[in-house]
Queue: 3 jobs
Job 1
Amino acid sequence: MIQLLAGLKGEGKTKRLIAMANEKAEKADGKVVFIDDDRRHIHDISHIIRFIDTTEFPLANFREFAAFIHGVLSMDNDVSDVYIDGLTNLIPNLDSDNLIDIKNLFSSLGKDRGVNFTATINIEPGALPSELAYTLVINEE
């Protein structure tokens, strides 16, 4: 499953993502991973979640992001859920084609490895490519 929480900065996407990850960690069949571009929210994340701060692993483009995700999953075969905060912060110059590539990457890994992906992105939901419409989760808060 792929879920994308899209919206402008300050709309509560990160808060919702953290709540989703913490809730999932309590009942997940596998391990939960939370990827962020800083350590600001490390104390908000449950201690049973594997927290990864990407400032130690700067990502220059989609290809490096894809390699990073493959590396995260290769370290542990028991990952069931990956939460990613701020795709636009993690990958510089993210464009519509990259977003479709990310959806395809998540879809492929989801099928092959049984991993669910949930990510936030700072973008107006209406500005997303139509190929991502089925992944969009409207922020109800």
Job 2
Amino acid sequence: MINIDNEMAKAEVLIEALPYIQKFNRKIIVVKYGGSAMTNESLKQKVIEDVVLLKLVGFKPVIVHGGGKEISRWVEKVGMEPNFVNGLRVTDAPTMEIAEMVLNRVNKELVSIIQKLGVKAVGISGKDGGLLTCTKKLSGGQDIGFVGDISAVDPKVIYNLLENDFLPVICPIGIDKDYNTYNINADDAACAIAKAIKAEKLAFLTDTPGVLRDKDDENTLIAELDLAEADRLMNNGIIGGGMLPKLNNCVDAIKSGVSRVHIMDGRIPHCLLLEIFTNKGIGTAILNEGAERFYDENADNNQ
């Protein structure tokens, strides 16, 4: 026997999603995929299902992925020791060779999962089509090897893939003007690509709930945050640790034309759908001052 309440609840979810599907139809969304959602097989499947659904309802998703934990695993597997300076991986020539191998392996695995779900995907790195050009990145003035700062983005290869109905999957490897290969921070790559292709949305999958007013209290999650509020939180020292460079990247993306940036907990199954297609969402949306707000935090507090 059909449980009409359950079926009505499903219908309500679809109706709540309708205005977002209408608003962002044919718009580009860049998904930075990393953290636990990459290492947990069940979560990996659900993230890719979310991205495929976005594609099938009319979005134009682009995935930019990392692979730091997998790189460290393989570095140790060949008898080397991972080395970090100020949170950045020291990448000598042998480590760079491993990093490129691992990231391309991860890239093609994601392409296979997407295509198994019925969507055409193409995996590329920042070297393809001259997508990502970079310079050597220093850490506190110290040379840490083949770690790159993005100096230019040529998005033609991405536009060509989107126009031909492919879902681009990009790993953060770039080249310098002398065609040396560099490893690039995936957050930086996603932000630079989103700016270059004027993405409507940029979504970061992380191992945190989002931006918190109190880093030790998940109940202080901020659902929506404009640039002035973000600057205030950063300048007052409320935001720190790994969230600070991520929020700086978000603010930079908004100032460069990306409409909305989302920070969400990739450990929650189907987090992308919950954040993008529901009024409240589950993470933090950063938006430009004066932009339309989809969620009234005060109204929720007054209920």
Job 3
Amino acid sequence: MENNYKILLVDDEPDILEFLSYNLKKVGYIVFTANNGKDAIKLAKQQNPHLIILDVMMPEMDGIETCEELRKIPQLSSTIITFLTARNEDYSQIAGFEAGGDDYIAKPIKPKVLVSRVGALLKRYGKADVDIDTGSDNIIRLGDLVIDKEKYTVKNGSEELSLPRKEFSLLLLLISKPQKVFTRDEIYSAIWGDNIVVGDRTIDVHIRKLREKIGEDYIKTVKGVGYKFIDGNN
């Protein structure tokens, strides 16, 4: 099996890097490795990986901090970031989502499961996390916002915004039906799916980050229910 997908593995434990690298190279992926966050950021800028698998617990710069820095790099806006976490690290999983991560893989993990999970993650590359019907036009203009669904970019006036995948998907969901109140359950189901458990705080953090970038007036909170998008004409 051969493919052109590039994967960056980041972990401070050599045995884990060797295990992940061996099993992913065996099925044809192009694999790069780093054993700390700073080297990972440099390597990511050089290689533009499609997927980054990032350990949470690392010295100096941990996985959460590394993810936050990676999400500031515009060229990596479409890169999928998934965390490696121990099964009981619920806090790390939530913190990972808040930092801009797309998913998490619980360790220890069997080789076949690893390959399956990676394949499923890479199917998302270059796409929103969900198939949201916002019409046939790739360019959507709402007030000062210009959203390019094909290029996966958002501009607020002349400023190009860097939106992680989950924030982009959340924005697409809200603009798909302006004025509609999306309940928390609807947002959970559409953006995270039924196989990932996130708390109310995770949604709130994503909404807050979106507001910081696009402006406070576009997204309204409906107390006790959810959120709705207000376009420039309403």
